[in-house]
Each structure stands twice: as C-alpha cells, then as structure tokens.
From TrEMBL:
Keywords: Cell membrane, Electron transport, Heme, Iron, Membrane, Metal-binding, Respiratory chain, Translocase, Transmembrane, Transmembrane helix, Transport. It comes from Streptomyces venezuelae. This is Cytochrome bc1 complex cytochrome b subunit. One of its GO terms (biological process) is respiratory electron transport chain. PROSITE patterns: CYTB_NTER. The lineage of its organism: Bacteria, Bacillati, Actinomycetota, Actinomycetes, Kitasatosporales.
Length: 575
C-alpha cells in the first residue's frame, strides 16, 4: 500500500510579494517597467555629465558635514587654537571656524579638501559636458529647452563655487570679494542697490558672509537640484541622443537598458569618481587658508589667483584698459563694466541663443536624435574652438604676474600680448580648426572610395610596386555614408515677377549669407556614379579577377544607399 503526500496549498503570498503589492497600490511601481528598460547608448563623451552629477552628490554629502562646524559670522574673535603662527591674531568667526575644521575636527581637513576638489571637478565636467553638446549638435530640436537648462546650470555652479570659495573669509577669498564688490558697483543705475543687497553696507560690511552662506547652502543648491531633476526627466522623456552607426536611426536608441546593466555600470563609475576625488583630497593640498591669514582691507597677498573657473574674468579685468567717463554727474567705469559684466553676459547670451540662431540660419526644423561628429560641421566646430581659445587667452592673462615672475618677463609685455591675443588667437584658431575639419572630411571620402592603407607592399609581374588597400569595416562605411550634408539656402528673390519689392529682402539676404557661411566647408558624400567608378576600378584590379569580382565580391550597380559599398573589395594604389 502506497501513500501519496500532497503539496500544501499556499494560502498567503510571500512577504516580498506582499511588500511589492503594498508599494504598487501607493506608488504604482508595476508601471515602472518601461522606465527600468530605458535604453542608454554608450560613448565615452557621455561620462562628462555623469562626473558632474556624481560630484554634485559628493558636494551635498560633504557640505552637510561642514555645516555642522562652520560658523558664518563676521564677529571678531582672537584665535587661540593649535595653529601656532596665528595664535593671538584677531579674525572673524568664519575664519576661526574654518581653522577649527582644518586642525581640530576629526577628518575636517579631508572633508574640506574633498568638498573643494569636488566643486572644481563638477564645474570642469559641466563645462566639458556643455562643449560636447555644442560640438555634436545635440541642442537641436527638440532639446532646445534642455540646452538652456544646461547653460543655466553651468552659470549657477560657477556662482555656487565662487560663493563657497568666499566663505572662509581668508585674505585670498576676501580679495576676490573686494573685486566682486567693485564689479557690482560698476553696473549702472542698480549697482549701489545690488551692493547693499549682497554686502549689507559698504565693503567690508558685516553681513556678506552670512548672506553668502544662505545663498550657498540653501538658494543655489535648491535651484541646481531642481534644474538637474528637470534636466534628467527631459533626457528620459526625449530619449538619449546617439552617434550614427548600423541599426541607429532617428526613431530608436541602441544601447543597454537602465536595469540592471546601466545602473550597475553607473554605480561602479560613481564609486570610481568618489575614490579619485578622495585620493586627490588626501594627497593634494588645496585652499590652505592658514597660509593667507584672515582678511584685512589694507592687505593683499602677492600672486593672488582665484579658482580656475574665474580665471578668464580675472584676465579680462587685467587686460582691459582703464576707461571711464561721466554721464550726468555719474561715473561709468568701462574698465570694469565691459570685461566683468558685458563680456560674460555676451558669452552666456551666445550660448543660450545658438540653437535658435542655427535653426534660423539653416532652415532646419526637423527633430534630431543622431549626433554630428565635430568634423562634419566645420563652421560650428571652428566657432566653438575660437570661443575656447578666447577663454584660454583671458585665462592666462589672469596670471600675468605669475608668468612674469616665473619666466622673467615684463608684466606689461604680457598684458599687451593678451590684449592683442584676444583678437588674433581666436581668428587663427577658427581658420586652422576649419581647415583641419575639411581635411578630415576629405580623408574620410578618400577612405570610402579607395579603402584604408594596410602598409603591405606588393610587386606586380611587370615589376611595379603597389600598396594594398583594404575596404573599411562595414560599420565604419555605414557611419561615413549616412551623414547629412546641409546645403546653403537658395538666394532670396528681391522682386516678384510684377516688380513688387520683397518686404523681407534684407533679412532673407542676411540669412542667405549666414547660411553660406555656415555650410561652407562641408564635403559632399561620394555620388553613386563615383562609387560605381570605384567598383569598376576594383573589378579591373591587378590580380586579374574577371567580371568585376574582387576578393569574392561582385562589382554590381551601386544604388547610392549607406550600404552601397557592400560590393567593394580590395583597392590597390600605386606608390
């Protein structure tokens, strides 16, 4: 007699399932499947945005730690701490608490330096991220709003860095505050009111550090966090951009899903960024405020230099000549207004308006989800590089005293070199960059028609030496042939057939000229006839393959599509 045991019936769901059902009833997590399978493409340039985001997270965590010990007060005190050179020196509570964090709080100096290095890294990564978008054209429709958010974020993180740099109230940061106060006063009409709002009185007032502290830990971080959230939501909603390649088009994204692949890689990259920043904070000293001493209006340290992201403004102030005039009894200081107010405002305006300017010039209103390679848009790339050259000239101009001391040069000569260089260097950079882009396009075209060089030399039966060329990889051929070439807009009609003048003639002529300027330097893709000639050349190669067959590929009619080189074989060029 056999006995059969039946499996017990489950009356309740497992605990994990019950928790998931509870969360779904309140958060709808079962609807997150689409988000979890969101695809993100892979390219090394996409990491700049991740570095900026991870640095921001580290800034928030280290900033929370520092707020527990920092005292944002300008009340006077006498230092009696362990740092002997400053004992008995009168200073503000803000500076004394910074010294206390550095020398008395456990891990305080490490956290201070980690916070500072993370700030510098975030600004650098944000700037590189913005340049990557600018060079690849990812700001085009439908991402104009996200581009504007990115530019605003770059401005805000720069201001946030300057505010945090000013909080210790040391001699170096105090010098920067004094410059900021002079720049604010130079703004016509509203300069004095803004100075009272920021500084609370005539500099050095007693409210500047507390007010900057509120801006630094509450106002700007809140705005940055909100904009970053909107920025990421738009990236997910509009889908990620990607470079051209096989299987990639304007309707899809080729990459890895958010869960689990991309999340695991992003988590590992976060710890990698954190580890590098921690290593820098542990071995590379930065912002040693005890070296400079407390701020005093009657003193200034020799060789004062701001953090790198403010270097171009420092250089502009040093290079611009002293120029001022009076209007209705009020002095207008152009030597401060132009380099410190007008110049950065103009640069920000160009960055914000560029997507709309380019769309108007080219007349391109389509959606773009595939990125350009910088060489494919020579005018845009040259323009961006000229702006970068302009920035770097002013950046080195901000160190004219250091350069004069280290290289035994005249500081006046360096200043004049900067004044001339801001006009000459960007122009040369524009011309050279554009020629490089055109040369790279011609090289790509040559590879499509003749293949790549292999370095193998072969001797023919009649004694001639040739170099063997091989066709490019199929993926590379597709990428090169699938790019778009935007021709210039046609010339406008000044009058219709009845002789009536075109009322928009001037704007259309300007647009036509700008369109010719923007499209200049774009090398057209090989035509189907040119590709067919290349195939015919291959079909009659030196190896004697008959009927147009080379290495097993028959030379058929080319249809001009991206896969038109499917019939190509091996090309040989005579040396």
């Amino acid at each position: 007699m056999s006995i059969t045991d039946k499996a017990p019936q489950r009356t309740t769901a497992p605990q994990g399932e019950r928790i998931a059902d509870w969360a779904d009833g309140r958060l709808g997590i079962y609807q997150w499947r689409t988000l979890m399978r969101k695809v993100f493409p892979e390219h090394w340039s996409f990491m700049f945005g991740e570095i900026a985001l991870y640095s921001f997270i580290i800034l928030i965590l280290t900033g929370l730690y520092l707020t527990m010990f920092f005292n944002p007060s300008m009340a006077h005190t006498v230092y009696e701490g362990p740092h002997v050179p400053l004992q008995g020196v009168q200073m503000s509570e803000a500076y004394a608490s910074t010294l206390r964090i550095s020398f008395e709080v456990r891990g305080g100096l490490f956290i201070r330096q980690l916070h500072h290095w993370a700030a510098l890294t975030m600004i650098a990564a944000t700037m590189a991220h913005t340049l990557r978008h600018f060079l690849t054209g990812s700001f085009r429709k439908p991402r104009e709003l996200n581009w504007l958010i990115g530019v605003v974020l770059l401005v805000l993180v720069t201001l946030e860095g300057f505010l945090g740099y000013s909080l210790p109230d040391d001699l170096l940061s105090g010098t920067g505050l004094r410059i900021a106060e002079g720049v604010t006063l130079a703004i016509p009409l509203v300069g004095t009111y803004l100075t009272m709002f920021l500084f609370g009185g005539e500099f050095p007032a007693t409210d500047v550090i507390p007010r900057f502290y509120s801006f630094h830990i509450l106002l700007l971080p809140g705005i940055i966090l909100a904009l970053v959230t909107v920025h990421l939501i738009l990236v997910i909603y509009q889908k990620h951009t990607q470079f051209r390649g096989p299987g990639r088009n304007q309707q899809n994204v080729v990459g890895q899903p958010l869960m689990p692949h991309y999340a695991a890689k992003a988590g590992g990259f976060f710890f990698l960024v954190s580890g590098v920043l921690a290593l820098m904070a542990g071995i590379a000293q930065i912002n040693a405020v005890w070296v400079y001493g407390p701020y005093r209006p009657d003193q200034i340290s020799q060789g004062s230099q701001p953090d790198w992201y403010m270097g171009f403004l420092e250089g502009a102030l040093r290079a611009f000549p002293a120029w001022e005039f009076a209007v209705a009894g009020y002095t207008v200081n152009m030597g401060v207004l132009v380099p410190a107010v007008v110049l950065p405002t103009l640069l920000i305006a160009i960055a914000c308006l560029w997507p709309f300017i380019e769309a108007w010039i080219t007349g391109d209103k389509r959606e773009h989800h595939l990125l350009d390679r910088p060489r494919e848009q020579p005018t845009r790339t040259a323009f961006v590089c000229s702006l970068a050259a302009f920035y770097l000239v002013l950046f080195f101009g901000g160190s004219n005293d250091i350069l004069a001391e280290r290289f035994h040069l005249s500081m006046n000569s360096i200043t004049w070199a900067v004044r001339i260089g801001v006009f000459v260097v960007p122009a040369l950079t524009y011309v050279i960059t554009k020629r490089i882009c055109i040369g790279l396009q011609l090289r790509d075209r040559d590879k499509l028609l003749h293949g790549r060089e292999t370095g193998r030399i072969k001797r023919l039966p009649h004694g001639e030496f040739i170099e063997v060329h091989e066709r490019l990889a199929r993926e590379q051929e597709y990428t090169l042939l699938s790019r778009e070439v935007h021709p210039a807009l046609p010339a406008p009609v000044r009058e219709d057939r009845d002789g009536v003048p075109n009322p928009r003639s001037r704007s259309e002529v300007l647009r036509h000229r700008l369109s010719r300027w923007f499209s200049d330097g774009q090398i057209a893709n090989p035509t189907p006839q040119e590709l067919q000639q290349a195939l015919d050349h291959l079909g009659h190669g030196a190896d004697g393959h008959a009927n147009g067959q080379v290495n097993g590929h028959a030379g058929g009619q080319d249809n001009g599509r991206p896969d038109a080189l499917e019939q190509r074989g091996t090309d040989r060029h005579v040396h």
